[in-house]
């Protein structure tokens, strides 16, 4: 191969954004020569490597954009330790189909049972399936909306939170909301309704949502939209962390 041809190939690879191949051209050529690959097999291999590298990059960027608060995966989730979690449902949700259908997911349960872990794990799978996701706590979400409203930027902020295909809202109900916040929350839910998915985690059963939102009517309107086309998982049982500590003998046995 002449230097001119090599330079032209490299330039075309870069212009076509086939950067994975461009960065490894010499190695790939040597390898193909050594293994005596056919033209078709060579083409197949380099295109596969380029496609895999692009997919990898897309997932890594998607995960960065999602702002997950911790690195948690479904592989790390110990289903045996939490028999209350419907593993089949989680596997189904992990395909990302619920996002394609704009269905919502609601995870209910007391602190420490793995709601946030599952939410992040599912978020990662949804991104791998090709969708955008954004993680936010209910507190941060409402603070951002309230601030935007004061600054006359509410429409833009609502658009920001309406955009990702999956919005994960963590920890609803830890603090009761003011009436205005409840209404802002309603506006966001309404914006996303039947268009894109919300994955919500909460420590409050729906019967308590009137108190969470400080108003039965608003709570009912929010619930109506969230629950329509939704998958719900109630996780009962002990805090995983406390159980680990109990196992390690740091805490007394349950009931002590
Ligand atoms: P929640 O959001 O319900 O309060 P978290 O998801 O924050 O609970 O879980 C608390 C901690 O315990 C996290 O570090 C999480 O990774 C871990 N954890 C909870 N349940 C499990 C589980 N079944 N398998 C592995 N780790 C778990
Ligand atoms: Mg949590």
The CATH class name of the largest domain reads: Alpha Beta
Write down the secondary-structure element order. HHHHHHEHEHHEHEHHEH
**What percentage of amino acids are in beta strands?**
5-15%
Q: Categorize the overall geometry.
A: elongated
Major sheet: order of its strands?
2-3-4-1-5
| Biggest sheet statistics | 5 strands, parallel
Total number of strands: 5
CATH architecture of the largest domain: 3-Layer(aba) Sandwich
The averaged pLDDT comes out at 94
CATH topology of the largest domain: Rossmann fold
Count of alpha and pi helical runs = 13
Fraction of residues in H or I helices:
55-70%
Rg over alpha carbons = 24 Å
Bound molecules: adenosine-5'-diphosphate, magnesium ion
Q: What is the CA–CA distance across the termini?
A: 78 Å
Number of discrete domains:
2
Oligomeric state of shown chains: single chain
CATH superfamily of the largest domain: P-loop containing nucleotide triphosphate hydrolases
Computed structural class: alpha/beta
Low-confidence stretches: none
